[in-house]
Amino acid sequence: MLLYRTAKTGWVLKSKNNYVQVPEADWRGITTREDLHDFLEGIAKIGVYAPEPTELLAPMESQEVWAAGVTYFRSRAARMEESQAAGGGDFYDRVYSAVRPELFMKGTAHRVAAPGTPVRIRRDSNWNVPEPELTLLISPQGNIIGYTVGNDMSSRDIEGENPLYLPQAKVYDRSAAIGPAILVARRTPPPTTAIKLKITRDGKVVFNDATSLKELKRKPQELVSYLYRETSFPHGALLMTGTGLVPGDGFTLLPGDQVDITIDGIGTLSNTVEQL
Ligand code: DO4
Ligand code: MG
Prior knowledge:
about 280 residues, alpha+beta, Fumarylacetoacetate hydrolase, domain 2, 2 domains, 11-stranded mixed beta sheet, 5-stranded mixed beta sheet, 18 strands, globular, binds 2,5-dioxopentanoic acid, binds magnesium ion
């Protein structure tokens, strides 16, 4: 089942190729329900059909958005290269194989771009990339209740200059996008699940590549258990699980680019790029 959030009609469910309206009385707190799967099955059975959702919002409420890093070999390699001059390469190598993962706070709903709206690149950065990441919706009790698509926009020059600049490379207005929907499923998407990134500039595709979940070094539940250690999330949390796709060193996003991130079974998160 896919759960969409819309500007006009609130939460809309897609079940067996039908769109079903979630009653307004159930909107609040829907993404923090421990019983989300069972609850949505009940809504699907009642079946008040709705039109295909438009004007999508990020499918979240007041969760903090967190991100895991260096969970794919490709991310480790790219980070080691970009931070070589700053002597930071060793940290990325070590965290890739350490027991404790890298986790950082990416932002709150306020910093998240909705599907179809612009993400931003910083004005004080010249080297920017999108990071396509399977993103977990986690309940207040630490259970994974859904899966969505995330874009962890990153300023590689700032990150590479000094690892201590990570929060500035990662967290600024509209430095994340989430959507288009939450996949509510009892099981984690299978390892064969493809994560695809396409970047289009002036009508031409300038980057097009794919990875799959089998390249993800850590188990989603392992990342969640570290995130929830000693830390409470009364509104639940969203956790981006890291990128397995990093365009080559010569590539940077430019204003006007279109970023399409597709994850099998969830959909495509599309955003344009802005630098105001
Ligand atoms: O260590 C820096 C960030 C890594 C990251 O965001 C990723 O691997 O996806
Ligand atoms: Mg990332």
